[in-house]
Structures are given as structure tokens and as C-alpha cells.
Write a structure and sequence with these properties.
The complex is a heterodimer. Chain A is of the alpha+beta class. In chain A, 63% of the residues lie in helices and 14% in strands. In chain A, the strands form two sheets. In chain A, strands 6-7-5-8-4-3-10-1-11 form a nine-stranded mixed sheet. In chain A, a hairpin with a 4-residue loop joins strand 3 and strand 4. In chain A, helix 1 crosses helix 10, helix 2 packs parallel to helix 10 and helix 8 packs parallel to helix 12. Chain A is rod-shaped. The two termini of chain A are 38 Å apart. Chain B is an alpha/beta fold. Chain B is 31% helix and 27% strand. The chains are: A alpha+beta, B alpha/beta.
């Protein structure tokens, strides 16, 4: 007995034995398929990786652009807030810069004497307070009169003030100037120097006693020769009950022709008044700063526009490159497939010539067409599967080494997943199996159609 | 009746010429028959053999085997019928070059359904019967001519066919191997099978119980 240890011979066994016997033909076909698979996988993978890389690059670029815009926005916002605060502080430092006076007041009189002869009812201040005025803040009704301080033989400007009255439709603001309490007096710096006054000192004005509550710092204006007392006391001392000379106000920070707007708004509420503006150079500076803010905002808009345009340009360029690559692939892939089909078909026909007698014998042994076809195409399936798999592995290795040289910060696995290369790695061997089956089909079909009788007769 | 051929005609068209390989050939074989058909090359012997072996449909006439008409069957059915009932022995052996002796014999079972395939022990028994046991793992190219032919006969007998068709089985053999082959054919017929031997060798034909002559497609006693 022969101890072959053999199992039953099957069609697959037959195919494997034939491959083993004609290994060079099998290897040649497998190599052709592997080369094609490597090329197709490589070109497809490159395209996918480039697409992914482009998206990644553009995303990074977009993030950078957005971050840059955000930084600029924050800078502009900070600068704007700072500017606004600076302007506000300047305006506050300068004090009230809007004077609302009775219409028939001669402004020259105010400038020359520091006092006003015409009056208006105190109710004007209340009317303004209850109005919806938006162009001014911080209303301060005052009496301003140049008088001789008989007790000290000095001409001074007496200001009667009662403290700011709130504008009712607005949120209550911190007063710029504290009210002067009854019995107290605030004095300008020149007066203080001339009379050598001190805070807390008691003085008499027109027979009435006051305590100096505060000494104003030097302002370089008529204020240095002014003193401030409670409005009611001033009205009484100067015989001006329920009358005032002026309402001081602070203009809001607004754009355009501010003073005209203020005049228009106040004229509607208080028709018998006029509005004059003091310290306009500060306002000019505030306007310049507002202009700077506007310029900064324009620059920001430009940064935004330029950033987005650069991004769009980059995207366009990248997309164009991808399109070119895609076009190349569309030409390359069918060419490679066709070439491989030709090689596999030629090898299949060559194989058929070698196996003519064997196929005739199989007929004689009672193998049907399906089995013979199965044996022939089974080999094609193996060539496709093996070649496809080797090709994909080869393509992946080549692409990996190339990409990792370019993008060392990202792992190959990460790129593989991000570019969805698994699907490509699966469909290419499947496609290669189909390709080899299709390419071998004609030879196999011819094999099953050949006349076994003729072959077996040896003619 | 095991095999009945009635009025077979077969014409080959070779370019402009027509060759009538079978002319109204009729033949009957029953179990145990050993019939030799003798004739010169090109007389139609191989055509007769392949037609009887259900490999080559006649242009006209009727082939009946074991009560069935194989040429009326679907090709795959006919192939299965052939695998089960007919064994072939060729002058050129037609061994599969990449299968060893054991597998070449096994290959005869490929045409049968898996459930009906012969076991490996049957293959081993045949190898022993044909003195090929020591050659089981050898490829055909490593065998002598006589061994190849014995391997071919072993393969033909694996499925225990009813009919054995031998086309010049001793054509390439020396006298000793010729004797072995003819003895095996004789043994097969004696065991109840029918043998149709086609040969141009008169000595080989003498082994048969009945010798028929074939001349230009005509079969005669």
C-alpha cells in the first residue's frame, strides 16, 4: 500500500497544483495584477490623502484667520473701550461743556464779566430733567453772578448750585460734581491763594457765614476766581428766588454735527434758551480719537476681507491641483486596467494552450462545463485576490513612506483612517478579482467550447 | 444490451474537403464482450470510439447505452453519465502533468458527485494492482511509458465503469507492457465489463473475443 496521506482531490486542489506546476506564469500574472493594484491604490490613496491634507490645511488656515480676526477684534474693542473711557474722563475733567442760557443773554457779557444778567425760571431745569433729551447729560442749574466780596474787598464770581438733577428717562449717573451743602462753600484756587483760605475755615459772604468745604484745583479759567454755595442760599442772597442764570450740561459723545443737534433738541424743549459750547478743543480731540477708532474698525474689516480672500484663493488653488490629479487618475486607471487585462488575458490564452490536452481529458472524465470553467476561473480569482492584496500592501507601503516623510507629525494610521483608505484597500482586490476573471473569461470560454474529441484524437 | 450503435454517420469538414469518418456503423456490445476494431490510420476507428464514449455526437444514427440515449441528454448530464459508466484509455495517456500518479487516478472521480467518489483505499488498491504503489508520489514525467499507460488504465477503472474504451493502448508500449495492458483489458471483460479496443496492431487485436474491421468509415466483420 502506498502511504500518500492524500485527501480527496478537489477542484481547488487541482487549481493549486496547477499553479504550483506553472508557477512562473502564475507569478507573472500576479505581478502584473499587483503592479496595477499598487498603481491604482497609490493614485487613489494619494488623491484621498491630498484631499484630506487640503481640508486639514484649509481648516488650519481658517482657524488661524479667524483667530487673527478675533485678536484684531479684541484689540479694536479694547482700544475702543479705552478710547471711550478716555473721552469720558476728559469730558468729566473738563467739567460741564454745555451752557444753556436765556435767549437774550449777551454771550460777550459772560465772557467779559463771568456773570449773566438775564435769568430764566428754575422750572426750566425740571422741564429738561423730565424730557426725553438724549444729546446731553448731567444737568446742573446754576446762578452765576460777579459780586464784590465786601468782607474781603475782592471781586468774585458767585455760583449758586444745588447739585445735579437727574434726567428721568435715563439710568441714574454718578454726579460729576457733588452738591454744595447749605452753609458750605467751595472756592476757586486764586481766591484761596489771595485770601489764604483753608478747608474748614469759616468765612462770611454778604453777611452770611459759610464753611469752606473744598478748594478747587487750579483750572486756568474764571473758575479760579469763583466760589460755589448752595443754590437756595445764592438765590436768597442775590434776590433771585426761583430764578437761575444757566443750566450746565455735559454733552453726550455722539457723532456728526453735535452742537447743532444739541441746540435743535434743547430748542424743542426750552424754546426761550440758547446753547453755547465751551472747551471745544477737547471735543475735537475726542472726535479725532473717534476717527481713529473708525479707522481701526475699517482696518479690522480689511483684515477680515483679506483673510477670507486669502483663504478662498488657497482653497481654489488646492482644489485646482486636486482636480488635475483627479483628471490624471481618470486617464491612468483605465489605462492600467486595460493593460493588465491584456496581460492577464494573454497569459490565460497561453495557459489554455498548455492545458488543451488536460481539458480534453477532463471532458472525457466527465467533468461538466461548469466544473472546468470553475477550475480555470478559480485560478483567475486567486491571481486577482493575491495580486490585489500584494498590490495594495505595496502601494500602501510606498505611499506611507512618502507621506510620512512629508508629514512627520501625523501617524500613518491616523492618515489612513482620516483619508478612509480602508474602503480603497478592500475594493481594489475585489476589482482585481473581477478584472482577472473578466480577462480570463474569454480563454476559459474558449476552453469549454473546444472539441474534446479532436483534442483527444491528437489531431 | 450495454451499448448499441445503430446506423452512425459522421462527416468531418476539413477546409474544402469532406471526410466521412463513419458510414452507417452499427455495433452492439453486451457485458463481458471484448471487441477489437482494427483498421489503418484515418479509417474512423477513433471517431467510432469517441462516439461510443459519448464524446462526439454522430451526424445521424442512434447511440444507446444501458437503455439510455446519452446524446439526448444535457451536456452536463451526459458528462456525469460518462464519468459513471465509461472509462477511457488513450495512446497518448493524457495524464495531468502536475498531478502525481495517485492524484491522476483520483482525478477520475472529479466528474462524480462528492458522495459517489471513490475512496483513497480504492485508488491504493488499483495502484497495487498495476504495480504502481511505489510510484504513487511521482509525476507522470518521472514514469516510464509502460507505467504511464498502467496509470491511465487504473484511472479508467477507478469509477468501476461498465464500458472501457481503449484507443491504441499499446501503440507506444514495448511487448512486455503491451501484454500487461491487454491482460488488464481481458480481466476487465471477464469481470463483466465490456471492452471496445481500437487498434491497428493485429497482435493486440488478437486478444479480443471479436475482431471487426474498419475501412473508410465502414465497419465490417
Amino acid at each position: 500500500m502506498v502511504n500518500t496521506g492524500a485527501s480527496q482531490l478537489t477542484l481547488l486542489g487541482l487549481v493549486l497544483r496547477e499553479i504550483q506546476f506553472r508557477k512562473w506564469s502564475f507569478l507573472l500574472a500576479t505581478f502584473a495584477v499587483a503592479a496595477a493594484a499598487a498603481l491604482i491604490f497609490g493614485s487613489d490613496a494619494l488623491l484621498r490623502v491630498d484631499r484630506w491634507s487640503t481640508e486639514r490645511f484649509l481648516h488650519q488656515k481658517q482657524v488661524e484667520t479667524e483667530r487673527s480676526i478675533q485678536v484684531h477684534e479684541e484689540l479694536v474693542a479694547t482700544a475702543g473701550a479705552k478710547l471711550q473711557d478716555t473721552v469720558r474722563k476728559q469730558m468729566l475733567t473738563l467739567g460741564f461743556n454745555i451752557l444753556i442760557l436765556p435767549k437774550d443773554v449777551d454771550v460777550a457779557e459772560l465772557h467779559m464779566d463771568g456773570s449773566i444778567s438775564a435769568t430764566m425760571p428754575y422750572s426750566y431745569a425740571e422741564k429738561l430733567s423730565n424730557s426725553n433729551i438724549v444729546t446731553v447729560n448731567h444737568l446742573l442749574p446754576t446762578i452765576t453772578k460777579r459780586v464784590r466780596w465786601p468782607e474781603h474787598e475782592l471781586d468774585v464770581v458767585v455760583n449758586g448750585t444745588r447739585g445735579e438733577i437727574p434726567i428721568m428717562h435715563r439710568a441714574l449717573k454718578q454726579p460729576m460734581l457733588d452738591a454744595v451743602a447749605p452753609g458750605q462753600m467751595v472756592v476757586g484756587s486764586t481766591i484761596q491763594q489771595k485770601l489764604k483760605l483753608e478747608q474748614g475755615q469759616k468765612v462770611t459772604l454778604l453777611g452770611r457765614e459759610f464753611t469752606i468745604s473744598k478748594i478747587q484745583p487750579e483750572r486756568g479759567s474764571i473758575d479760579d476766581m469763583s466760589l460755589w454755595i448752595d443754590l437756595a442760599a445764592a438765590q436768597e442772597m442775590l434776590g433771585m428766588q426761583n430764578l437761575i442764570h444757566a443750566i450746565l450740561a455735559l454733552e453726550c459723545e455722539c457723532s456728526g454735527d453735535r452742537i447743532s443737534e444739541i441746540r435743535r433738541e434743547i430748542a424743542e424743549i426750552l424754546p426761550g434758551t440758547q446753547v453755547i459750547e465751551r472747551y471745544s478743543q477737547a471735543v475735537t480731540r475726542a472726535e479725532a480719537r473717534t476717527e481713529s477708532k473708525r479707522a481701526a474698525e475699517e482696518a479690522l474689516a480689511m483684515v477680515k476681507t483679506e483673510g477670507l480672500a486669502t483663504l478662498a484663493r488657497d482653497r481654489g488653488r488646492r482644489m485646482e491641483l486636486l482636480q488635475q490629479q483627479r483628471t490624471l487618475n481618470r486617464t491612468l486607471e483605465p489605462t492600467v486596467i486595460l493593460l493588465t487585462c491584456c496581460i492577464v488575458a494573454a497569459l490565460a490564452f497561453h495557459n489554455l494552450r498548455q492545458r488543451k490536452s488536460e481539458i480534453g481529458l477532463m471532458r472525457a472524465l466527465g467533468l461538466g462545463s461548469n466544473k472546468i470553467l470553475g477550475a480555470l476561473l478559480g485560478k483567475a480569482v486567486l491571481v486577482g485576490a493575491l495580486g490585489g492584496t500584494i498590490g495594495v500592501a505595496l502601494g500602501a507601503a510606498i505611499i506611507a513612506s512618502r507621506i510620512l516623510r512629508m508629514q512627520s507629525s501625523v501617524s500613518w494610521l491616523e492618515i489612513w483612517n482620516a483619508a478612509s483608505l480602508t474602503s480603497t484597500a478592500v475594493w481594489i482586490p475585489v476589482m482585481m478579482i473581477l478584472l482577472t476573471v473578466v480577462a480570463s473569461w474569454l480563454a476559459a470560454f474558449q476552453a469549454i467550447r473546444q472539441d474534446a474529441a479532436v483534442v483527444l484524437q491528437g489531431d | 444490451m450495454l451499448l448499441s450503435l445503430e446506423g452512425l454517420n459522421k462527416v468531418y469538414t476539413l477546409t474544402s474537403n469532406k471526410v466521412q469518418a463513419l458510414r452507417d456503423v452499427s455495433l452492439e456490445l453486451k457485458e463481458g464482450d471484448f471487441v477489437a476494431v482494427q483498421g489503418p490510420s484515418g479509417s474512423g476507428k477513433s471517431t467510432l470510439l469517441l462516439t461510443a464514449g459519448t464524446m462526439l455526437a454522430p451526424d445521424s444514427g442512434r447511440v444507446c447505452m444501458l437503455g439510455e440515449a446519452p446524446y439526448a441528454m444535457h451536456a452536463n448530464q451526459r458528462a456525469a453519465f460518462r464519468a459513471k459508466n465509461i472509462g477511457f484509455v488513450f495512446q497518448q495517456f493524457h495524464l495531468v502533468p502536475y498531478l502525481n500518479v495517485f492524484e491522476n487516478v483520483q482525478a477520475a472521480s472529479l466528474g462524480l458527485p462528492i458522495s459517489s467518489r471513490m475512496t483513497n483505499s480504492k485508488v491504493e488498491q488499483l495502484l497495487e494492482q498495476f504495480s504502481l504503489t511505489s510510484r504513487g508520489r511521482h509525476l507522470p514525467s518521472q514514469l516510464s511509458v509502460g507505467e504511464r499507460q498502467r496509470c491511465c488504465i487504473a484511472r479508467a477503472l477507478l469509477n468501476e465503469p461498465k464500458l472501457l474504451l481503449a484507443d491504441e493502448p499499446s501503440g507506444s508500449l514495448d511487448q512486455s507492457n503491451t501484454q500487461i495492458v491487454l491482460q488488464e483489458l481481458r480481466r476487465f471483460s471477464e469481470s463483466g465489463g465490456a471492452v471496445l479496443l481500437v487498434t491497428h496492431d493485429s497482435a493486440a487485436a488478437q486478444s479480443a473475443d471479436r475482431i471487426l474491421q474498419m475501412q473508410e468509415g465502414v465497419l465490417s466483420c
